[in-house]
Amino acid sequence: MTVDRSLDGFTLPGRNFEPAYVALQRRGELGRRAKQALAGLSRCTCCPRRCGANRLAGETGVCQAGPQVRIASYFAHLGEEDCLRGRRGSGTIFFAHCNLRCVFCQNYEISHLGEGEDVGIERLAAMMLELQAAGCHNINLVTPSHVVAQIIAAVALAAEAGLRLPIVYNTSAYDALDSLRLLDGIVDIYMPDFKIWDPGQARRYLTAADYPEVARQALLEMHRQVGVLKLDERGLARRGLPVRHLVMPGDVAGSAAILRFLAGQVSPDTYVNVMAQYRPAGEVSSAAFPEINRCPTRAEFLAAIQLASDLGLRLDTRH
Which pLDDT score is estimated for 16? Predict the structure, then answer.
């Protein structure tokens, strides 16, 4: 496949860049959305599980999250994709808890056990401003799907106080369309991880049989909002949709189907990071999940990389 990829189609000027949420903040829309999102926590439907928990009263659902957000860590992350980390790092905020229950989770203590510190919206906004002051290139929100309301409220406060970095929504792709629509014009860079294609495999490994369909719809909505990934003249991400995909042993993820979906239904210009760092973790053991109790082979990884290349997808620069 030959794809025209002139620089004009994939670059945005870095100088005088203004993130999308600033326009919403100026006309008061950002504050309005924050109030709407926070009110919704009284009967929570912010993720596809739609559990209806009154989180304002302390009730919790699968995600175990209440009215506050629990932060595991925040720092300038130098291990992300080159287009995010640049020279000064991606301003990463790791949220504890998760609306999935991946048995192989490599952040098990954070996502399943909820290790971290509970903070309010004002403190979350202050973290964003601290990361900006430290010189980070963006605000990278990791595992944000269950705390969308608090994120919107914190961005509203931080924008009022001078936040001007692009927002990266770093997600499993198990996101409700209603929440994504609330984020329209707030998030500059959506970075979903399309994990598994088959519903049966998703039930077994993610405890969410509807994950594949939810993820497909979520990616299409994300792409509608921000389009393909655009970089500035320094190679830094400014707006768009980069996608991660983790190659798993025995192809339980269905890598070929996922890559064909990205090229055929999202865009052949989709920026994809095909990742090889799967390792047995979390609840994986030889007794419970023997088929994934190993790392993927080099051949399994290279097959996914070759297919992505053949489909004309934009591979992460490290490949």
Answer: 77
Q: Residues 6 or more apart from 264 whose CB is under 8 A from it?
A: none
Residue 163 belongs to some domain of the structure: yes
User: Interior CA angle at 299 toward 297 and 303, to 5°?
Assistant: 125
**Structural domain tally of the chain?**
1
Query: What is the distance between the alpha carbons of residues 39 and 63, in angstroms, rounded to a whole number?
Result: 18
DSSP letters spanning 112-142: TT--SEEE-HHHHHHHHHHHHHTT-S-EEEE
- 11 inside domain: no
Burial class (CB in 10 A: 0-12, 13-18, 19+), 99: buried
Distance CA 305, CA 274 (A): 7
**What's the CATH number where 266 sits?**
3.20.20.70
Report yes or no on 7 lying in a domain. no
User: For the chain, what is the mean pLDDT?
Assistant: 94
The whole-model pTM stands at 0.94
